[in-house]
From TrEMBL:
Name recorded for this polypeptide: PDZ domain-containing protein
SUPFAM superfamilies: PDZ domain-like
InterPro entries in the record: PDZ, PDZ_sf, T15H9.4-like
One Pfam family hit: PDZ_2
PROSITE patterns from the UniProt entry: PDZ
Region (Disordered): 224-268
Domain PDZ: start-end pairs: 128-183
Gene3D superfamilies given in the database record: 2.30.42.10
PANTHER family: PDZ DOMAIN-CONTAINING PROTEIN (PTHR31327:SF5), SPERM MEIOSIS PDZ DOMAIN CONTAINING PROTEINS-RELATED (PTHR31327)
Start-end of Basic and acidic residues biased regions: 242-255
Species: Pristionchus fissidentatus
Length: 268
């Protein structure tokens, strides 16, 4: 019933020699330290581990949502070793309210790429983002909803999710694997199927870009150099003409603003 959807997908594994898989995993696994300041002793923890430190599930209400991810391997909480859900829960509860430092290992099992396309609307930029997974695991981390104009809009992008490299809140999701989408359920279904079947997905996003602000600078009369400063000379006609030009009205300024080329957004 909620108008929002978090895109959190895992998909089936695929057969590769164990040696190659181990090497790939070691190359992609990175240690990290998640820092969070929990202000309430009643804050939801909502992190489930598999008994060996690996995160199995994170509840939507969890204070660690967007900070920890499924398949992260938790090493410690505030320097206390963690392996089970009870370990994690008890170590967090001992330190709240207060600062929680979670040491973890994360396997970055995906690659991302982005290609800029020709814009189809004024003052916008168009991008095709491709996400590809080596095997199951990392979530996309993208919250989508449908606005009143019928657009599928990215509402939230989680830090550390696969989409965070290129997708930004406010982007319009136009196509999934080059198929037009104007409904969040259709977009979600297409993305899930593509990841499960192909271990990759391509999404086309449109981003609004800001226009340059209009600045009207006053004209200045500059006296021409003279040998005798006591002699006053009339300024050149070209300069006088500048002074006599009528300042643009607010309506004319608006027209100028509309014709100003859009300012480029930050390059990916």
């Amino acid at each position: 019933s909620s108008p929002f959807h978090f895109l959190s997908f895992t998909h089936r594994g695929w057969a590769v020699p164990s040696y190659h898989y181990r090497v790939m995993a070691e190359i992609n696994r990175r240690k990290g330290l998640a820092k969070i300041d929990i202000q309430s002793k009643n804050a939801s923890i909502g992190v489930e581990l598999d008994g060996k430190g690996k995160v199995k599930k994170i509840q939507p209400s969890s204070s660690f949502l967007g900070i920890l991810f499924t398949n992260d391997i938790i090493i410690s909480v505030n320097d206390k070793p963690v392996q089970t859900t009870a370990d994690f829960f008890n170590n967090v509860k001992k330190n709240v309210p207060g600062k929680i430092n979670v040491s973890y290992e994360r396997d970055h099992q995906y690659t991302t790429s982005c290609k800029k396309l020709d814009a189809i609307h004024p003052n916008t930029e168009l991008y095709e983002v491709e996400l590809a997974w080596r095997s199951g695991g990392t979530r996309i981390g993208m919250l989508i909803h449908r606005d009143f104009e019928g657009h599928v809009v990215v509402a939230v992008v989680e830090d550390g999710g696969a989409a965070s490299s290129y997708v930004k809140p406010g982007d319009h999701l136009l196509r999934v694997n080059k198929i037009d989408v104007n409904d969040r359920e259709k977009a979600r279904t297409l993305i899930m199927k593509s990841i499960n079947d192909e271990k990759k997905v391509s999404i086309t996003i449109e981003r609004a870009v800001a226009q340059k602000s209009l600045m009207i600078q006053p004209s200045v009369i500059i006296d021409p150099p003279t040998a005798d400063k006591s002699i006053t000379q009339d300024p050149p006609k070209s300069v006088t003409a500048k002074v006599e030009e009528k300042a643009p009205t607010p309506k004319e300024a608006d027209k100028s603003l509309a014709m100003t080329p859009p300012q480029k957004s930050e390059a990916f």
